[in-house]
Design goal:
Blueprint (H helix, E strand, L loop, with lengths): L8 H24 L2 H25 L8 H17 L1 H26 L3 H15 L1
Length: 130
């Protein structure tokens, strides 16, 4: 008999790729932004690096490249940030963090009392700090 997975494989892939996307975005922005934003981006890079490593371990999933849709989204956001400067960077950072909180809260509610729900506690605390 095949074991029942503790999580949805598509959800696992999505969570890992989402963290990889956020990390890639913050790293790319670090190279094109004014130095006064670097401290914030450095903090976000540190947190996203830890989140990515956590989800890879949690799901035993090794993904190191964004899928085509996320690569396109990254290129588009970088274009917008370069075009509109620091205002766009701040809006993008806020939107990414708010989206992350909403996503993780919804998942926490759905998986409360299960291993995935417990794993989300630390991630949610990090997201709320931002």
């Amino acid at each position: 008999m095949k074991p029942i997975p503790l999580h949805d494989p598509q959800l696992a892939r999505t969570l890992v790729l989402d963290e990889l996307f956020d990390l890639s975005l913050y790293q790319a922005l670090r190279h094109v932004t004014h130095p006064d934003v670097h401290h914030t981006l450095d903090e976000l890079i540190t947190v996203e690096t830890a989140h990515l490593a956590f989800w890879k371990r949690f799901f035993s999933l090794s993904l190191d490249q964004l899928n085509p849709g996320r690569r396109l989204k990254l290129s588009f956001l970088m274009f917008v940030c370069k075009l509109f400067g620091s205002t766009a960077v701040h809006l993008v950072l806020e939107a990414i963090e708010v989206h992350g909180i909403r996503k993780y809260l919804a998942l926490w509610r759905e998986y409360q009392g299960q291993p995935l729900g417990e794993a989300l506690n630390g991630i949610l605390m990090d997201e709320f700090k931002h």
